[in-house]
Amino acid sequence: MESVMVGNAIKVAFILLITLTVIIPCLEAGIAEFDNFLKIQAEEAYKIALDTYVPTPEDVVNELNLHVHLALENSTATRRRELGQKKLKGPCKASNPIDSCWRCNADWANDRKKLAKCSKGFGRRAVGGLDGPFYVVTDNSDDDMVNPKPGTLRHAVVQDGPLWITFERSMIIELRQELLISSNKTIDGRGANVQIKNGGGLTMQYVNNVIIHGIRVKNIVPKDGGMIRDSYNHFGFRTRSDGDAISLFGASNIWIDHVSLSNSGDGLIDVIMGSTGITISNCHMTKHNDVSTYLIHSYELLTLVMLFGANEHHEQDRIMQITVAFNHFGQGLIQRMPRCRFGFVHVLNNDYTHWLMYAIGGSSNPTILSQGNRFIAPNDENAKTITHRDYATPEEWKNWQWQSDMDLFMNGAKFIGSGAPIQLTYNKGLIMKPRDGTHVSRLTRHAGALDCFVGKPC
């Protein structure tokens, strides 16, 4: 009852904040002119965010842990049956609950929309373009920002209504400016090697219900901005983009799955300004370039990873709820996996290998629940600590709820917890502990964009 009352109080507070929030010109959002169309979009986005917010996040945590248990049990049973046979039947072994929902279906190409039923965690409501037609991208060009050419990705993502976007063939898309994705879209790269590369990144601003799946996003750079269409009925002047690979600004019900990300001008994934209901799963994040000693000390020049909440004054991020699950954080990453302000972040069954400064950080009193992850610390004795807190004295941050539960610590990795234990008072009296970090190899073995071929399991 107490958690429900707290959740309702937060909703009331944010209703009061909406008016103040939406009348401020959003230069941080890349908007040069905050016109009436965008004001209405912002108001609607915050209302959706409030409806998306879960006052008892422990219920979502418990449900996801239950699905992990079931997926691993089914996978183990399948492996035992295979061991009793002379020959393995097919290469597909899906161990996590998202992959087991769709990945071993050889007929996935004729049943693409089954994916929409597979999301878990806080982004579980994202169905993307489930209720719309298919749109096949046939052209990798990106020449017109205001009136994009039919057949291009930019034309697809601004169409009115839900769309399930696929690709005719493998292609490299070099975006001349950031790509503004409208609500109710799925970008589905399965069956092709789709690379968003050497140009602008993907932006979801004041939108709801988007799935990004099965693409590669790399070498993203800042772009100067200009007139860019953001929906079927609107375009406007955008300021210079930051160079984030994927940016969420006031977005709700977003699922990013099986995406490979590397090398961006700023961060790989930013989630800010009242975004909530987010799941980031099965992604592979890395820095491909060699890392010199000079660059390690000048870490601003290297890839930062995930920023959840951009400013201590953005009180709307108190309703931010994000699931980070089954991802592989690979070589050459510095910090921010994630870096959080406010909100509730569930970090579950991820593989952290050799960060350069720290893995999980934050300020402004976020709640961070780390469960069943594997943390392999770097050899640097000064970087063994997983956690990092900013802009607060130990007397202040000692009350922040940062909790480690059944994580696996290797090579001297250490998690410094704080605050009162997170009370996981589950529905129906069911207490479902997470799978511990020893299972991470199985749960994350297929992280990143998959090589999917028609007629075969991915």
Write up what this structure looks like.
There is one protein chain. By secondary structure, the protein is α/β, with parallel strands linked by helices. The chain has a single domain, classed as 3 Solenoid (Pectate Lyase C-like), CATH 2.160.20. The chain is built from seven helices and 29 strands. It has helices spanning 2-22, 36-52, 57-83, 153-157, 293-297, 394-397, 440-444, and strands spanning 134-137, 163-167, 171-173, 179-180, 185-188, 194-197, 202-205, 208-213, 216-220, 226-231, 234-238, 246-249, 252-257, 260-264, 267-272, 276-281, 284-286, 304-308, 321-325, 328-329, 339-341, 344-348, 351-353, 360-363, 367-371, 374-376, 387-389, 402-405, 408-410. The strands form four sheets. The protein has a ten-stranded parallel beta sheet with strand order 1-2-5-8-13-16-19-22-25-28. The longest helix has 27 residues, at 57-83. It is an enzyme of class 4 (lyase). Its main location: secreted.
Supply the CATH superfamily name.
Single-stranded right-handed beta-helix, Pectin lyase-like
Question: Which sequence of strands runs across the widest sheet?
Answer: 1-2-5-8-13-16-19-22-25-28
Q: How large is the radius of gyration?
A: 21 Å
Number of domains: 1
Largest sheet: 10 strands, parallel
The average pLDDT value, as a whole number, equals: 88
The CATH topology is Pectate Lyase C-like
Fraction of residues in H or I helices: 10-25%
CATH architecture: 3 Solenoid
Distance between the termini: 44 Å
